[in-house]
Specification:
By secondary structure, this protein is an alpha+beta fold. Strands 1, 2, 8, 9, 10, 11, 19 and 20 form an eight-stranded mixed sheet that branches. A seven-stranded mixed sheet has the order 6-5-14-15-16-13-17, with helices on both faces. A three-stranded antiparallel sheet has the order 3-7-4. The chain is globular and about 60 Å long. It starts with 29 loop residues before the first strand and ends with a helix.
């Protein structure tokens, strides 16, 4: 059973704009139109609005709405929420102090304790239903932001110095115009094809299944990852004795009929220790599926266009950094756009800085994900990797820093990768 989450809701500067009450004036022109009001989109809108820009934030859903996610937010993401003033509005979820990897076949474990990097570091598991709603409301309350729910972005066209987005609402079709379009509409963004952005699908084809359980007998101080060849099970502890379990499985596509409680239980049989920790829990009422899980693009900008969050490229969830990367993306985009929007420097050459800096920022995360996935697919490599990290505290600290700290970080060197592969 999902825990009840109570969010702090101060008096709003303005109400969120419902689709059937939106009035568009022909002379209204936003500085930025953001398509997608999830973590990256809502955070970008709030940060731009608080810098004095006029922003339209569109989402096809009416909030609150749920989304498939492991719900674990790494310490860097928690800190960004604190800096923004959002963390204090969230009064639910479960904090955790590290990640524990367990070998589901041979036993053995590896603890990556955040205190090795900084004793103050904590991650937090937030119900995505509550986190997205809180962020979207925070954006709606920010100066200059118009939040348009139940508003689906349709056709996009360039009209001289502006981008015009067709917006489909229950009340009819309207147009929203702005100087810049920001795509935050996820890994399957329709803007990739519209702006001829080449997609580079992940080398490891994977899908996710997610379900909530009302009883959990594991360790609530850590996020546990049970590993076996071609599959991992992530457990994010929830308050009141529950757990969110996400299965990450290697396959070219979601299996037919995979998103059922019966199928989920069948996959769980591969993780006997986890099954024991969930013993006594009621069968989950709902199982959700998602695919693909990883994506890279040749660029995440265009003429009067930026792509943020998963729309700009997604790191495989094996690193647990998805939501933190979305928040880092929002912060990076807002910092770059502060001068670009002020000077109306929004051509493709002007916005290339975002793609370049984003790639530098996140390359270590992509490389670490590839290294971990390659090891997890081969049992002997997985065991050696676990041995190396248990034996080598310096290497363990570096891996942790790549996963949990903020700011640009050094990549794994060839010596690091050799040590992981050799077990030393």
């Amino acid at each position: 059973m999902a825990p009840e989450c109570i969010t702090h809701r101060p008096a709003k500067k303005r109400s969120a704009i419902a689709a059937d009450s939106v009035v568009y004036h022909h002379n209204m022109r936003y500085d930025a139109v953001i398509v997608g009001a999830s973590v990256a989109g809502a955070a970008t809108a709030a940060l731009l609005g608080r810098q004095g820009f006029r922003v339209a934030l569109l989402d096809k859903a009416r909030f609150p709405r749920d989304k498939v996610c492991g719900e674990g937010l790494m310490p860097a993401g928690v800190e960004i929420l604190r800096e923004m003033g959002v963390l204090e509005r969230l009064t639910c979820g479960q904090s955790f102090g590290g990640i524990r990897f367990l070998d589901a076949q041979r036993g053995g474990s590896l603890d990556l304790d955040f205190s090795l990097v900084d004793p103050e570091l904590r991650g937090h598991a937030f119900p995505r239903l509550a986190l997205d709603e809180t962020l979207a409301e925070f954006a709606a309350q920010s100066p200059g932001v118009d939040w348009m729910q139940a508003t689906r972005a349709d056709a996009v066209r360039m009209s001289g110095p502006e981008v015009v987005v067709g917006a489909v609402t229950p009340g009819g079709r309207r147009q929203v115009a702005g100087r810049l379009l920001i795509g935050a509409d996820g890994i399957r963004s329709r803007l990739h094809r519209r702006f001829a952005i080449r997609r580079r699908p992940a080398r490891h084809k994977r899908f996710a299944l997610r379900a909530r359980f009302d009883r959990y007998g594991g360790d609530y101080t850590m996020v546990e990852v049970h590993c076996r060849p071609r599959a991992e099970a992530y457990i994010a502890p929830q308050p009141e004795g529950g757990a969110l379990v996400t299965l990450l499985l290697h396959a070219p596509r979601k299996p037919v009929g995979g998103a059922t409680p019966e199928a989920f239980r069948a996959f769980l049989e591969s993780f006997p220790r986890l099954e024991a920790e969930l013993r006594g829990s009621r069968r989950p009422a709902q199982v959700q599926a998602a695919a693909p899980l990883g994506l890279r693009l040749d660029r995440c900008h265009g003429r009067r266009l930026l792509l943020v969050g998963d729309a700009g490229g997604a790191v495989d969830p094996v690193t647990g950094q998805g939501m933190s990367i979305a928040l880092k993306d929002a912060r990076l985009a807002a910092s770059i756009l502060a001068s670009k929007l002020s000077q109306d420097r929004l051509e493709e050459a002007d916005l290339a800085e975002f793609s370049r800096r984003r790639e530098q920022y996140f390359r270590p995360a992509y490389e670490m994900a590839e290294t971990l996935l390659s090891a997890l697919r081969r049992p002997f490599l997985a065991r050696r990797t676990m041995q190396a990290l248990n034996r080598n505290s310096r290497l363990r600290r570096k891996i942790l820093s790549l996963a949990v700290q903020d700011g640009p970080l050094p990549s794994l060197t060839w010596r690091d990768k050799l040590r992981l592969a050799s077990g030393f």
